[in-house]
Amino acid sequence: MASSSSFVHLVNLGLVLVLLGFIVPRSEARPRAFFVFGDSLVDNGNNNYLQTIARANAPPYGIDYPTHRATGRFSNGFNIPDFISQELGAESTMPYLSPDLTRENLLVGANFASAGVGILNDTGDQFMNIIKMHQQLEYFKEYQQRLSALIGVPRTKRLVNQALILITVGGNDFVNNYFLVDSTARSRQYSLPDYVKFLITRYSKHLQRLYDLGARRVLVTGTGPLGCAPAELAMRGKNGECSADLQRAAALYNPQLEQMLLELNKKLGSDVFIAANTALMHNDYITNPNAYGTL
Predict the structure, then answer these.
(1) Transmembrane region positions (predicted)?
(2) DSSP-based three-state secondary structure for 285
(3) pLDDT for residue 23
C-alpha cells in the first residue's frame, strides 16, 4: 500500500482537490490549468476528429448532457474530467484536436485523451486511427509551443508546472489487447504476471516523459473492476459473475501501479504522481450508495 502522501481514494473529489491545493480561492482571477491524458474514460471528443471506429458521436451517448446530444464523450452525460473542471471552477477542457481550441481557451488546459488507447503502442490497433500515448505526449509538447507563442515561455512553463493533470489508461491493454481474443500475440508472449510487469515498466516511461514536459501534480488512476464491465460480463462472465481472468488482471495491476508511483516519486524527490484508487471508489459506491445520494 502506498503512503498517504501519494495515494488517495477518490471518494470525495472536492475534498481531494482541496487537499491537493487545487480549489481556487475567489480572490484568484483564473483557476489553474487542467490537462487530461488517456482513453475513452476521459476522452471528451478527440476521436470525433479522427477516421476511427472508436467514436461516441451518436445516441445514446450524450442523452443526459445539457444539450442532450452526443459530444464525443463515452458517457450519457458529463465524464470524470468535466466533474474535476467543475470542482476547479473552470470550463471543461476542450479536445486538443478541436479547431475551437485557440487563444483564451488554451489557458484553461486541454484534453489529449483518445478512446481505445493503452499504455502499449499496439493496444487499440483494431480501432485504426487513434491517438496513442506517445502521440498524446507529443501533442502536449506542441500545446506548450502554441501557448508560448501567445503568452511567452516563462508564463507557459509556470502554467504547466502549476496545473493539475489527470491520466487514465491501462484497462484497454487487457480488454483490447491481452484478452481481446482467446490467443493474442501478447498472451502468447507473456504470462499474465509478466505482462503486468511489462505494462508497469512501459507506463513508468510515459510518466517520466510527462514529468520531463513539466507536469508536477498528476492524478494517476488505476483500473476499476475490469471483469465486471457490461461487455465483459456478457462475453466472458459465467452465471452472471464477473470475468475471473480480468478481475485477476486488475488485482495484479493496481498494487504494482501504486508501487511504481512510489518509486518514481522517490526518484524525483517529490510526490508528483498521486495514485487514485478508482477500484475502491467503485466498490464504495456499490456497497454504500446512500452516502452518494443514490437509493
Answers:
(1) 6-24
(2) helix
(3) 54
What are the cell numbers at 33? 490549468
Nearest alpha-carbon partner for 123 in 74, 179, 73, 167? 179
Pairing relationship of beta strands 218-221 and 164-168 according to DSSP bridges: parallel
| Distance in angstroms (rounded) separating the CA atoms of residues 14 and 38 | 22
Question: Residue 110 and residue 43: Cα distance in Å, rounded?
Answer: 11
CB atoms < 10 A from the CB of 224, how many?
19
Closest CA to 171 of 116, 128, 122: 116
With beta carbons less than 8 A apart as the criterion, state whether 119 and 105 touch: no
Looking at the chain, which runs of residues are DSSP E strands?
7-8, 34-38, 109-111, 164-168, 218-221, 273-276
Which amino acid is located at 39 in the chain? D
End-to-end CA distance of the chain: 32
Which strands sit side by side in the sheet containing 109-111, from one edge to the other?
7-8, 273-276, 218-221, 164-168, 34-38, 109-111
What digits encode the pLDDT tens for the residues 208-243? 999 999 999 999 999 988 988 888 888 887 888 889
- Give me the domains of the chain, ranges plus CATH numbers: 28-291 (3.40.50.1110)
163 pLDDT higher than 50 = yes
Which pLDDT score, from 0 to 100, does residue 187 have? 95
CA 134/CA 137 separation, integer angstroms? 5
In the chain, what's the furthest Cα-to-Cα distance?
Answer: 60
Q: Say whether pLDDT at 59 is over 70.
A: yes
- Give the number of other CB atoms < 10 A from CB of residue 48: 19
Dist CA 256 CA 190 (whole Å): 17
